[in-house]
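Hi F.,

I've been meaning to write this up properly since the lab meeting, where we talked about keeping a consistent format for the predictions we share between groups. The idea is simple: the sequence comes first, exactly as it goes in, then the structure tokens exactly as they come out, then a line or two of notes. No screenshots and no reformatting. I'm using this chain as the first example so we have something concrete to point to.
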Amino acid sequence: MEPRRSRTVKRRMWGGLRQQWKLLGLFEIDQQHEFYSLTCMMKEGLSTAIQNTIDNPLPEELSDDDFRMEVTQIHKEFRMESFAGPVFASLRRSLGMTEKEYQLSLSSEGHYLQFISNSKSKADFFLTNDKRFFLKTQNKREVRFLLSNLKIYMEHLEKYPHSLLVKFLGVHRIKIPHQRKKYFIVMQSVFYPDERIHSRYDIKGCEVSRWTDPAPEGSQVIVVLKDLNFEGHFITLDQQRPWLLRQVEIDTDFLQTLNVLDYSLLLAEQPLHQDERHHSLSFATLIMRTKKSISAITTKRNTSRSMVTSSSPTHAGAAPSVPGTVPEEDSADLESQTDCGMDQCHVMDMRGGGSGGTEEEEDVISSEQEELRGRGTRTGSAELRDFQAQNRRLLPNFKNPLHVIDGPEQRYFIGIIDIFTVYGFKKRLEHLWKRLRHPGRSFSTVSPPAYCSRLCQWVQGHTK
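Output, unedited:
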């Protein structure tokens, strides 16, 4: 007769497998899960750390001490250390996030979810219950690398607010008595919100080991596919294509300066609703066009937050527009008011009551207002509230607009992740070994300039 303990273990394993399928390939970390205790500590520690940020307002300007800051908070069963707290809080604020909503998502009563990755990394991946934020365990070297380059990472995001680089929102360390210290980072999920996403890819621009068996037909299990799975497909963006090519060049050029490789371009596809395909009828699109026109003729009013429209590293002089670009001003512009009556509609800046711009700017606004007036009678208050809720970049009305680009038929979620692999001695040896093992084939481990160039070429060859 089978021992009772063995039967119990099998039931738990089968129950976990059913739960995985139920949650589209994600394990819910309940009380039977091996990571339940750890994730409870993460929740408690993060809630307290964020509360500390809420209680201590951010400085006007970040100092070198803010980048070096380490805060330790003692809990009953563990200690939690937070690194460069004011820096990450500043980044969260620049993304339009409030500390309260960040705290609520990371410390809600709902269980974290474990994401089963096909990555070769030994890291553990967790998602908040609302799937908005990723938590990933990292080794000490990777954390040190991120913190040592945090200042130039922040400068890059400040210069290019629409950067495709993943947004790191916190770095922490948990110390449990008699156990090894556990480092982890919090990131904005590229694939959020994930409703109706029908395919996901992890792209490195090479072919060796870049195939993943798709999920069975009709299955709802999440499988992240790879380069070879994408062959024969295209990212169809039309007018937004030049912007994407340029931004990928800018971001990979930045990663090349860090001497890193093996990063991935995450890509997901979601079909647009029928009403989202008619951009000419979109009220938000008209506002975008107004803002883009103003952006093209005005100077930066706030250097630290203005959108830099410098040319691509390799396409000097080219300046394709950024999707939904508006002048990068302070957070008051998140709530730019749209006053619409039955026979008029115009944009009003909360701080000044009007555009306050040059005659040329006012002419641009006037021409756009004429179009908006025609929509005034057809625009209900609910639609206006939706518009007002959008963040300053006026991309789709998501909580995660920075990684979203709309094409004619599809919405694409695009972000660059895993930027911690330095091209050091071990990677150089691996490169030589793979050249012998895979002659004439492209593989991941190449020099940072070659990696950068190859990924840019992949994007250029798979977009239209």
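Notes:
The longest strand covers residues 168-175.
Residues 169 and 205 are 27 Å apart (CA to CA).

If this format works for you, I'll send the rest the same way.

G.
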